[in-house]
Write a structure and sequence with these properties.
This protein is mainly alpha-helical. It contains nine helices and no strands.
Length: about 200
């Protein structure tokens, strides 16, 4: 099989295991922005997130023989990213104190890693932007385990099964954590009514 953009992630990993490094290049191209954004949520530092994103793909290459091609690639990749971020935080004894709003200000007011929604009316865009800002402030105050599932579910748009794979818990436990996190958010802000 040749490496092409038509290959699934799992097929690319199989090719990588056979020694085809072009498969890794394509996986990096597909996931580099997602991994960077994912690392920002944990590390809260743009430079550390950039460095971590590069290290994660090195770890993917090093662990390629451990990948089970019958399973989904994305949760496996995000589990590697999560573990690396936790190890970096633990090793440096960093407490991620910077809020998402502070990171936005550092970047000149743009949140490039946030997927902005387009709107037909300028006022709708302003209201949506304000809702996102309020939501991010609230998410910053959540307990770590709740914030983690919210990031995975709504920022990374992962299913309960994928979240379970990343967190190495059962799917039922993942759904429970999501439910508790949403309930916690709803008690904190009445603007958040339709997350599900």
């Amino acid at each position: 099989m040749e490496v092409s953009t038509e290959c699934s992630d799992e097929q690319l990993m199989a090719l990588l295991c056979e020694g085809n490094t072009n498969a890794l290049a394509l996986l990096v191209e597909r996931y580099q922005n997602d991994i960077f954004r994912f690392c920002i949520h944990y590390l809260r530092d743009l430079e550390a997130a950039r460095d971590a994103a590069q290290d994660i793909f090195l770890k993917v290459f090093a662990a390629k023989d451990k990948f089970d091609t019958s399973r989904s690639f994305r949760p496996w990749l995000l589990r590697i990213a999560r573990n690396l971020c936790f190890n970096l935080l633990k090793r440096a004894q960093i407490v991620p104190m910077e809020s998402l709003d502070a990171m936005q200000e550092k970047e000149g007011g743009s949140r490039q890693y946030w997927k902005a929604q387009t709107s037909a009316h300028p006022l709708e865009g302003i209201l949506a932007s304000e809702r996102r800002r309020v939501l991010l402030r609230i998410v910053d105050t959540m307990p770590e385990d709740m914030r983690e599932v919210i990031v995975l579910k709504y920022f990374e748009q992962m299913s309960s099964k994928e979240i379970a794979d990343v967190l190495e818990i059962t799917e039922g436990a993942a759904r429970t954590r999501i439910h508790r996190a949403i309930a916690w958010l709803r008690t904190k802000n009445k603007l958040i009514t339709d997350l599900q």
